[in-house]
## 1
Amino acid sequence: MDPYLDFDLGNIKRFNAMKEVNPSLKTLVAIGGWNEGSQKYSAVAASPSLRNTFVQSALKFVLDQGFDGFDLDWEYPARRGGSPTDKVNYVTLIKELKSAFEEHGLLLSAAVSATGETIDTSYNVTALSQYLDMINVMSYDLHGSWDKVTGHNAPLYPSNLDNTADSKELNLVSCAEAWLSRGASRSKLNLGLAFYGRSFTLSDAQNNGLGAPISAPGLPGRYSGESGMLTYYEIVEHLTTNEWTYRWDSEQEVPHIYKSNQWIGFDDANSIAKKVKYAKDEQLGGVMVWSVESDDFSGLSGIKYPLLRAAYQMAKGSSGVENWVSEVVAGRFCKCFIFIISDMDRSSITMMASTPQYHRQPLLCHLQPLQLTHHILQANQQRIHQRPLRMLHQQPRLNCVQEAALSEILMTVECFIIVPLMVLLSEHTNSFVKMGRFLTRRLSPAIGLIW
């Protein structure tokens, strides 16, 4: 049990009270995640009595606390400590959840793997499409230091270096096709967008292209502190120094940067817009973001949240999309699905800030000191709450929630946001709820939010 958590259910009640401000607001509670593993979910899914207990407990909690649904993030059935029977048992668990939830008009979603091997091992896609309201494909972490060579975190298309059947699957288009070809419903499929990059330490600084040998993960981020991973706000901070070289991969439709022996593959506003355009063209349900707080929220480039803004503008088909998005596309886009909590196991609260009009140089950014990946995000104290939140470690306070709030971004997009249960049980929820009320007062009544 995390000693920093305060299990006061009053926080949940205050959280769900945001629906009094915006009656269209929808809230889901999520459990699971990478750190949870698979073993305990495997045991539950295999036992009729444990499944019934799980379903009834989840239903009771959702109803008692006033949520509108439930998100299951089991990573992954029949893998990582699971059982070969998980694939069948997972469908049974989802079916029983759906049966119980549907009677009460509740939503059910799941976060799922992106690649064919895990899909075939873990999921009966046709059955999941029948019972789930949303299928959220985690189409990122497709390459990293585990490959022993440089590679993009989440390329849109394959490269000419992808010369094996497995490597040709490691891009967003192939991830979508993997689910669709196995029977997934287009209208329920949400592709994941990464607001972070994967970094590498080159074996030879002179060999700095795609597929170059590496000696180790990239250096830890200044604020995130994790080797081999950098948030977008850390990446754009590098770009302001003019010490890094930027390259656009015209095959994979994503950028990377390098300096000396450091190499980072990531998404920028251009690549995000191209991915959303693909989702629109394919008439998918939408996109999800992992995770919003990793964007450039300080906006010293002239725009806050350039990645989120690019996704929204392309989804909306607005003529206000930046001039680097050459083709403006109008068309149907069911919803923009956004994860706003980065990691329930680290109790990391994420907040969405305002975004002014686009600046024409979204890469020219500078970031003030902050800490998000392993710590609690602080809201603007003057606007949102009276006293500072206690952080897990001492870090600079953020000032990220501004007056021109979320409505500009979400005015015409149905948006679902999920918050893990552990966050709602924490001492930090009160300030998070106040922030949510502040934002929802400025949202169109037609917008549904799942925090």
## 2
Amino acid sequence: MPGVAPLSPKSTSAEHGTVASFFAGIGGFDLGFEAAGFRTVFQSEIDPYCNVILEQEWPHIARNKDIKELSVDDIPRADIWCAGFPCQDVSLARARPRDGLRGARSGLFYDFAALLGDARPGTVILENVPGLLNSHEGRDFGIVIQTLVELGYGVAWRILNSKHFGVPQSRRRVYIVGCYNDPGRAAQILFEPERGEGHLEKGRKSESSTLSPFMERAEPSGRLRNHRSHKQLIGSSAEIFVPKLSFCISATTGRHTGTDWSRTYVAYHDRVRRLVPAEVEGLQGFPDGWTVPKGTSVGEDLDSRRYHALGNAVSVPVITWLAERVKATATLSNLYPGAIAQSSAPDSALKALSA
């Protein structure tokens, strides 16, 4: 369900920028943007375990834990704001009725939007589950789009699947891009030209120092030959049968309840084993050991927290692609247009938020 919300376009000159990350989790947005040459200047995340990871990877940047206690004055100026706001109240994975944006968690979008209205950075990128599109018969999604448009953003949205970005996981997420006073650019970021330049080897690159997390060559039989792994488990010429991509990794991946247990295991011929957190890191595009706090030992309790954090994270290669698209379409005045001109957009959305 891709789309574009119309607004008058505006164009300007190119440079890299800075990023502020909200609902930062374990830093998937930050890591993806930095891989494309951007610099993270701010993070907001309430989860204590995730904050440990953020602190060890970005020890010198400004950080805030609770978005409800955050003022725009606390946020360093950033060209791009990223937010994977909570999905629990819009997700179809829950058996109970969905609260949508009225819920305590997904409703934090309103707190983010109020800050966005005060700062109005040049680009905003939101991420959530596809259930956002039909939550309350689409009304919640409409509120998100209308809010961004009334704040002066041209908006485009698209569902992206991680399996198309070099990781063997089927993970569909809706990405919403807003560009201040520039709907044409929002669409350019999300919808690349049908013909363009690419580099296959870049998409295949793996930083794993153990078993290669991703197979790189398929044979007609449907078997994948592991021809470039670092530590072989069963021999350099052994074949592993992979009938399909990994299920979407969720925050409940570490549990053994309901139907989720089947998603935490992989089968090699007649043997079955559980996916370990290091493999889930690979399925999400994170470096090996990213979710292990320094000075801790790997154990069952730590595994549960790692599974949960990774299940809530964005897939890093998807974010790197988005960052490259932002970079490819950026110009000087649309990176931070608030520094050039004040918004003339109506403030009815912000008034509704504060009502």
## 3
Amino acid sequence: MQTKNKGGIGMVTVTDHLSCAVWKWRHVTMAHGILVNVKIFKKFQEAIKDMLK
């Protein structure tokens, strides 16, 4: 891609980097959220087991 407007290219790379960072951040928070949910679920399971004893 060869264009005379270098400012446009600069803006595109900046937005690409931002969207990539946001995408990665979303995946990290998703993974963290799942881990937290699993921990909560396990505690919940243990509580139910204690109640059933």
